[in-house]
Specification:
There is one protein chain. The radius of gyration is 25 Å and the shape is globular. The N and C termini lie far apart (53 Å). The chain is mostly beta strands. The strands form 6 sheets. It has a 23-stranded antiparallel β-sheet that branches. Strands 1-6-7-4-5 form a 5-stranded mixed β-sheet.
C-alpha cells in the first residue's frame, strides 16, 4: 500500500527547495625519530608558513602563530599521552559544509559516512558502535557541545550537529578522553562554538549545487564591553542523489558570554534545529553498481522518512579562576529531542528529555617535589522523560483493519549515567610526564512495556570503574612518544534493551519486544603506543592500539522490512572480540616558493582490524561494518593573492557485510577537487567537485548474521559526481 504525496508534503519545511598523493604516510616512524634537531628546527621555523592550514590537518602539536582557538586546543591536547586531533573550522569552511561527514574528513581513526547524503551519518572510532547503522542514535563516542554532554542513556541524536558556526572540534580517541568524563571505547568528540571575538558583525554564507542542494547561513558576532555574543541561523535542503532521499533542515545556534571580572566568566549556549530526512533504504551491490540513484522499491512505496520536529539544547557554563594555579568549571544542560519515524508499516514517536551537569576543578601543585596538575570532575546525565509510541501507519498484516494511528505498543524508558573522575599529570623528569586517572561509573537503566500491558518492568543499577595510566616522553622539543593502558566501560542504550527477542507472538504488536533483555556493559582493556611531532617530512601523529573487548554490544538486522511488517533490529553481547589498528596523520609543506606561493599535503590513514576471538559460531571472523583500510589525501596549492586549489582522494578497502564473512563490500576510490578564493577580509568563494569519476560505491551497510554468499539489500550507495559552490560575504 502506498502513502499519498500529501504525507510527504506536510512534512516539508518552509525552506526553499531546490592519485594517491606523492607524499607517503610516515610508516617508518623510526626514520623520523632519527632526524637531527637541526632538521626539526628547520621545519619548526617554517611552521608560521604552514599556518592555520597545518593547524587544521589533524596535527597534535603546533606552533601558535596567533590567538586562534584551534591552535590553542592543539597545544592543550599535545599534553595528552595518546591519539588526539583538532579540526579547525576556518579550513573546513573553504569547501562544502553540508553534514558532519564534511567536518570530520581527514581525521585519523574516525570513520564518518552518510547514508542517503543526510545528517544521520555513521560515526565509528576504534570500532565503537561498529554495526550501528546510519540514522540511528550515535553511541560508542561521547559527543559534547562546548564540554557539555549531548549523549543521554539513549545515546546521542544527530539533528543538532550543524557543522557551521563552529570554531573548532576536538577529537580524543579512546581513553584519551577520560578527563572529559568519557568512558566509551571510541572516546569523545567536542564541538566548540564560535565566540563573539572570533566572528564578523554580519556574515552571509550561501551554498548550492548538484541534486538541488542549497544551504544558507546568516551569522553575527561582537564583543560589547563585558558581553560577547555569536548567533547563527542556518537552513539547508537537497532533493538528493537517490530517489527518496530528500533532506531539509533549519536551526539556530547562539553563544552568549559575560565576563564579570578577569577571573570569572559565564556563557549561555543555545541550539535548536528541525530536520526531515527521507530514507531511500538499502540496495543490493549489483543495484548500486548498475544505478545507485534508485531507492529500495519498498521505501518508495511506503514513502519512508524520519522527522525531528524540533530539538532544543539549552546550557550554561561558568569558569572561575581564583588564582593562577586553579580553575573551577560548572555547567548544566537541558536537552529535549522528540523524533517521528515513519519507517514503513508502523510509525514510531519518540520523546526524550535529559538533564546534564558537569563539574571540574583543576589545580597546579607539586607532588613529591615535581610539577603536577590534578583535576577532579563529575559528569552526569539523567532522563527526565523517555518513551516510544508505536502506531499503525499502513494497516496491513497483523494490523489489517485497524485505523491509522492506532497505538500498537507503548514503551517507557528511564535511566542515568554518572561519572566521577580524578586525573593527575606529573612531570617525573623534564622529558617524561606520567598521567594517571580513575573513573567511577554509576549506570541506571529502566524500561517497561506498558501497552499491551505485560507488567514486566526491568531495572538495573550498577557501579563500575575505568582506570588509566599513560606516559609522554619528549625525545626533543619537536618529537614525543606516548603510551597508555586503560579500561573502558560502555553501558547499553536504554532503547537497545527493547530490541527484538523476547517479542510478542500474537496481536498487532507481533514481532515487537515485550520485555527488556538483560544486556551487560561492554568493557575493554586497551593498550596504545604512538608518536607525534615535527620533522623534515612534516607534522605527524601516529597511534597503534590493541583492545580486548568483553561483552561487545553488536547490532544486527534480524528481519528486513516487508510490505506487511516493519524491519527488526537486535542488539546483543558478543563473545570476546579484539580491536586493533593504526591511526596516522601527516601534514607536509611540499614547496615554499617566493612571495607566499606554497604547496601543502595532508593525509590520514586508518587501519581497522576487528574480529571475534574463538567465537563458538563465527570463530575468529572479522567484524563487519567498516573498511579495513581507509585513506584520505589532499594536495593544495595556495597563491599569495588568496587563490587556492586542492585535489583529493578517498580510498576504502573491501570489508564484510555479514558476521559469517560470506559477502564483501567492494572497495572504492573517489577523486575530488576544490578551487576557491579567500580575500581574508570581506568575501570568499569556492567551487567543490566530489566523486569526479562518478564511482558507483557503497558508503555504509546494514550488517546481517549470514547472507550465505548472496547479494541482499543491505548496501547504502554514496553520492555520484556532484558540483557545489559557495559564497561568503562579511560586513
Amino acid at each position: 500500500m502506498s502513502v499519498s504525496q500529501q504525507d510527504r508534503d506536510i512534512t516539508r519545511f518552509t525552506v526553499k527547495s531546490r592519485l594517491w598523493s606523492s607524499v607517503a604516510l610516515p610508516l617508518g616512524v623510526g626514520v623520523l625519530l632519527m632526524q637531527s634537531p637541526a632538521c626539526a628546527q628547520e621545519v619548526a621555523a617554517s611552521a608560521d608558513v604552514v599556518g592555520s592550514y597545518a593547524a587544521a590537518a589533524e596535527v597534535d602539536e603546533v606552533v601558535v602563530s596567533g590567538a586562534r582557538g584551534a591552535a590553542t586546543a592543539m597545544l592543550d591536547l599535545a599534553t595528552v599521552p595518546g591519539g588526539t586531533s583538532v579540526v579547525d573550522s576556518a579550513v573546513v569552511d573553504k569547501g562544502r559544509v553540508f553534514t558532519n561527514q564534511d567536518l570530520l574528513a581527514f581525521q585519523p581513526g574516525v570513520f564518518a559516512q552518510s547514508a542517503g547524503g543526510a545528517d544521520g551519518i555513521k560515526i565509528s572510532i576504534r570500532g565503537s558502535a561498529i554495526n550501528r547503522g546510519a540514522n540511528f542514535f550515535r553511541t560508542g563516542v561521547l559527543l559534547m557541545f562546548d564540554g557539555l554532554p549531548v549523549n543521554g542513556p539513549g545515546g546521542a541524536p544527530y539533528e543538532l550537529f550543524e557543522p557551521l558556526g563552529l570554531s573548532y572540534t576536538e577529537i580524543l580517541r579512546g581513553a584519551n578522553a577520560n578527563a572529559l568524563g568519557a568512558t566509551a571505547l571510541g572516546g569523545a568528540i567536542n564541538y566548540v562554538a564560535k565566540k563573539g571575538s572570533e566572528a564578523d558583525r554580519l556574515q552571509i554564507r550561501l551554498e548550492g549545487g548538484s541534486f538541488n542542494y542549497e544551504k544558507y547561513q546568516i551569522s553575527s558576532g561582537q564583543v560589547i564591553g563585558p558581553w560577547d555574543y555569536y548567533v547563527s541561523f542556518t537552513a539547508s535542503g537537497r532533493d538528493g542523489f537517490q530517489q527518496q532521499s530528500e533532506a531539509r533542515s533549519a536551526g539556530v545556534m547562539a553563544n552568549l558570554g559575560y565576563r564579570f571580572s578577569p577571573d570569572l566568566e559565564t556563557r549561555l549556549l543555545f541550539r535548536y534545529r528541525e530536520t526531515t530526512n527521507y530514507t531511500p533504504g538499502a540496495l543490493t551491490q549489483a543495484e548500486v553498481r548498475r544505478d545507485p540513484t534508485l531507492a529500495n522499491p519498498l521505501n518508495v512505496a511506503q514513502n519512508t522518512y524520519r522527522r525531528q520536529p524540533g530539538s532544543t539544547f539549552v546550557a550554561s557554563r561558568t569558569t572561575w579562576t581564583p588564582d593562577d594555579k586553579s580553575e573551577l568549571e560548572v555547567g548544566f544542560a537541558w536537552h529535549d529531542y522528540p523524533i517521528d519515524i515513519n519507517g514503513g508499516v508502523s510509525r514510531a514517536i519518540w520523546a526524550y528529555t535529559d538533564l546534564s551537569a558537569v563539574l571540574r576543578y583543576t589545580r597546579d601543585h607539586e607532588l613529591f617535589g615535581r610539577d603536577s596538575t590534578t583535576s577532579i570532575g563529575f559528569l552526569g546525565t539523567t532522563h527526565l522523560n523517555g518513551y516510544q509510541h508505536t502506531l499503525v501507519r499502513i494497516p496491513t498484516g497483523v494490523t489489517a483493519g485497524l485505523p491509522v494511528g492506532t497505538l500498537i505498543r507503548r514503551a517507557n524508558y528511564d535511566g542515568s549515567d554518572h561519572v566521577v573522575h580524578i586525573d593527575n599529570r606529573t612531570e617525573a623528569r623534564p622529558d617524561l610526564t606520567v598521567s594517571t586517572g580513575l573513573s567511577l561509573i554509576h549506570v541506571v537503566r529502566s524500561t517497561e512495556v506498558s501497552f499491551p500491558e505485560v507488567n514486566r518492568p526491568y531495572k538495573r543499577d550498577d557501579w563500575d570503574y575505568a582506570p588509566r595510566i599513560g606516559l609522554l616522553y619528549s625525545v626533543n622539543e619537536n618529537v614525543s612518544l606516548f603510551g597508555n593502558i586503560s579500561r573502558s566501560v560502555e553501558p547499553p542504550n536504554d532503547w537497545a534493551l527493547l530490541t527484538t527477542p523476547p517479542a510478542f507472538t500474537s496481536g498487532p504488536a507481533t514481532g515487537l519486544a515485550m520485555q527488556a533483555m538483560d544486556l551487560k556493559d561492554q568493557t575493554a582493556v586497551s593498550f596504545e603506543i604512538g608518536t607525534r611531532g615535527r620533522a623534515r617530512i612534516g607534522e605527524w601523529t601516529l597511534s597503534l592500539y590493541w583492545a580486548k573487548v568483553k561483552n561487545e554490544l553488536l547490532s544486527v538486522e534480524v528481519q528486513a522490512a516487508t510490505p506487511t511488517s516493519a524491519a527488526l533490529t537486535a542488539e546483543s553481547n558478543a563473545s570476546p572480540t579484539i580491536h586493533q589498528g593504526i591511526e596516522a596523520g601527516l601534514t607536509s609543506l611540499l614547496w615554499d616558493g617566493q612571495n607566499g606561493h606554497r604547496l601543502l599535503a595532508r593525509q590520514s590513514y586508518t587501519y581497522n582490524d576487528f574480529s571475534f576471538k574463538n567465537d563458538p559460531v563465527f570463530g575468529d571472523n572479522e567484524l563487519p561494518g567498516v573498511p579495513r583500510h581507509f585513506y584520505q589525501g589532499a594536495v593544495t596549492y595556495e597563491h599569495p593573492s588568496g587563490f587556492y586549489a586542492t585535489i583529493s582522494i578517498d580510498h576504502a578497502s573491501k570489508y564484510f557485510v555479514d558476521y559469517a564473512n560470506t559477502v564483501e563490500v567492494k572497495p572504492y576510490t573517489l577523486l575530488g577537487a576544490t578551487v576557491g578564493y579567500d580575500s581574508a577580509k570581506q568575501w570568499k568563494v569556492f567551487v567543490d567537485f566530489r566523486n569526479i569519476t562518478d564511482e558507483h560505491y557503497v558508503s555504509s551497510v546494514n550488517t546481517f548474521y549470514d547472507d550465505r554468499g548472496t547479494d541482499q539489500r543491505r548496501y547504502n550507495p554514496g553520492d555520484g559526481f556532484g558540483v557545489s559552490g559557495g559564497l561568503t560575504v562579511s560586513f
